[in-house]
Amino acid sequence: MKIQLLPKMLKDVWDDWGIELLIAVSCGMHMVLTLFGSSRRRMQARKVSLRFIMWSAYLLSTYVATVIIGKLTVIPVSDYEEEVTDSELRGFIAPLLLVQLGSHDAITAYSIEDNRLGVRQIVSLIAQSSSVVWILLRCWTYSAISYLYLPLALAGFIKYGETTWALSTALTGKSGVTISELRQDPKYLSEIFKNVGDDPDLELILRAYCRFYFVKPHIDRWLYKPLYESNLKWYSIDEHHKNPEDMFRITDLELGFIYDVLYTKAPIIYTWTGFVFRLVSTLCLVSSSVVFACLFRDSFVFYINAGVIFVVLGVIITLEAYQIYMLFLSDWAIITLIEHRNKPGVKRLLNALVRRSRKWKRWSNTMGQFNLIRYCLDYDRLRCGRFLKFKGLDIEIRKYFCTNSVGIPSALKEMMIDEMAKLNNKKQEVKRLKKEKKKSSYIGRIGEFALNIHNIILPESAESFNWCVGAVADFDKSIVVWHLATEICYHSETGKQHPHPKTEMGRILSNYMMYLLIMRSDMLSITTSDIVFLHASQQLRVVLKTGKYTLIRDEKTACEELKTRNLAVGPESAETEPTMVTKDWDVLGDAKMLSEKLSQNENAWDLICSVWMDMLCFAATNCGTNRHLLHLRRGGEIVTHIWLLQRHNRDEEHPSSKDKSLMGDTNRA
């Protein structure tokens, strides 16, 4: 006797209503991607559930459409003698699928890899379009309903073509720029900046767009064009040095333009071609829906498929109206309106959008936080099963639950800008002295620039200071040691009646660098972060378990234990044997020694903040461009803003000879 794996009723439902069920699923995914696609840029990384839903909808939408098209290719051929056939109605679904696949303005790509494979979308476009044409030919009956296929198919081809266009051009950039193109850029720039007025918000948007337009930081090996002598004031942000909020707003705006280029349709929508395509596709959808509703105004009860199609059309048009509305609430819309500000009514609309734009949230504006001491204190509270331990997932789960985020206060942004300026001045001074051969030793260890700012000179022969700054290879160890020392100093400072104003800022930076090391090690270009983290956490847990405070539950008590106790932890006390990376590293002893040295310094917190900013700048500079761009879709990181500020600063101070020669050719022209 054969066992029937699927009940007959379930098979019948799939055969009779499988297409309708799948189109309902497709509509649901369409709504998710349209309504929540734009929220990725400002969504905190911890919102895993919503990200998983969006990721699933993005990946499955194409597969569901392929299954539906496959089922539509085998439906019975329409009967020319019948007035309305079921096959004829189901034929509407094919072009509607193309419309759904191409209607996601806010999320054309989920990751950068989708852009790199964008050219393959052309093959997918041809295959899907050919299948749709084949289905429409099989369902064609020369009736009034059949002729509605044409505008719907046109709208579908346009929508899907827009997505393919956006994907295939997101990362493209010519390897060389011709003189004729350079001639056009100043004309374009002078035109767009004409009659700007005295609106500071509009000026910030223009500066950000100018920087994005010339430098294109998202494209590697792009020929930089930052220095046009007559337009340098629009490129530089030196005037805003005294206002850190404005400097970070400019980077917010610029990273917003980069995000839109990589992950949305914005660069092609805000063009004349994009405007025409959007107008034609919208008119096709609306006219088809109106005619369809008129043809079946009294027959929806008799033709269930007609009701299904009408609901799908309603969902598509509603979401299309929402997307058209969102087109106006964009920095690209402001740039587009500036070019046409002299037309009637445009200036008033532009001023309204600029005022409203100041409230737009362009990224998460948060900093991830990971505290190593808190992690060790909570380690035994978070119990994981044996299976998770066997697979090594228990550590990742504990990391996740010990991670949080904090908003970035204005005082911290101001401190970041000030410290970056000091570090940059010190680096320029070292380069000048080296060029003049007045300084024989080269400052190369991470954090040494910050120490030099505070007149702490570390001779190369002073072995006793090796714990204080680290070479590039020991960057991860330096982060852990300074993190523990900062934590000890923090809890010593909080007991004072008048704590230092930089105490909280130093701790936020410390926890953020640990967050990058533990959760975003790819941005630090470190391959040994897991080894260093496991070693440090195991050593710290041993001390916290065997200390005089047997029930340590808070960081302050743990720091007292680290300060007062002899921290010699033998290898027999650790859970794992030392590795080549950690065998000669006394993490707790180094942290205790550093905290003692810092406590003897009157400007300890100024020094701590300087060192953390030196490390943050080093991380930002050495992180690959692709890693910065990858995390834009996860809410963004402050290290990416630091990277952008440093990159532009280098371009403004050190234009290449190639740039100068090209500028000379342009000016002579």
TrEMBL record:
InterPro entries: DUF4220, DUF594
Keywords for the protein's UniProt record, in alphabetical order: Coiled coil, Membrane, Transmembrane, Transmembrane helix
Coiled-coil residue windows: 413-440
Entries under Pfam families matching the protein: DUF4220, DUF594
Residue ranges of the TM segments: 17-36, 48-72, 269-293, 300-317
Disordered as annotated region, ranges: 650-669
Domain DUF4220 positions: 55-375
UniProt name for this protein: DUF4220 domain-containing protein
